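Supplementary Text 2. Reproducibility record for the structural model of the 294-residue chain.

All settings were left at their defaults, and a single model was retained for analysis rather than an ensemble. We include the record here because the model underlies the residue-level annotations in Supplementary Table 4.
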Amino acid sequence: LGQTFQVTSQEATKLSLAFSRPPLPSAEDCRKLSEDVQNAILAVATMYYWLPKGQGTTLRKMVRDATTEVVEGMIQLTDTILNAPAESLSQEQLISTGGVWEACEQVSSLPRDNQAAVASALTACLGVVKDAVEEMEHALVEGQDPYGDIMEDEELGFRGNRDTYWSEGDRQLLSSCMGLMKASKACLKKVLGAVKAYGKADSPEQIAQLDDLADIANEISPSVDELALSMYPPVNPLAVRLNAAKLASVLKKVLEIAKTSHVCPPSEEGWVQFLDGAVDHNMNKIKNFTQGQL
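Retained model, structure tokens:
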């Protein structure tokens, strides 16, 4: 794969140089250039398809995404050359050529097995959830107006509008929601640590367990985002409860899959039980706060 990416990068350079200054390549040269580019791209695609599915769907998806970027980059470069004036090297052509180089360089940072691929996927999820938690914590600071940064235009409405502020009751409910969001962050952090410490990709069973973990963990970030969006005023307690229940369900699944997989030896079961309890604790408080709304 590394070799095919390198050859594609070189072909992009050759193609770009051939159309960087007059005279334009002859019809025969164009045919040869086109053939070389096509062969390079076919080699890249072939290498992706040769990667066995049994090596893990998470790994395969990352290789597919990298391969797609290379192919799309070459298409863009070719389009740029076809549409550019013949006299000079355009800025667009330089950018497109650099885009192919960048896409081809990605191969050096691709994970080498499914354990590394799943760890990479979990790291990305954790980053998004961390950002969401920090943003919500910032908005919930006592006395903070959650719309302060976007509601400065008087034409947008009366600043004393109750719909732009949280009541004391709202804040009590949202405190438990924050507990659930923090549990999401802790859950991803702990699962990531376990995958790095104990994860293996030596057998089909281990590879499949890692993929299951990555698949369910991918649901955490969208669930956190949905809950966070429903927490902004005016708060609909039932919508908050529904989104909190969805997130709690995803977290319970993540913990269950982790617990029954090879990444969770007996020494790791303590944090699984603790986080499972934390999810139940916060969800029960959310149910109590919203019981009167049912």
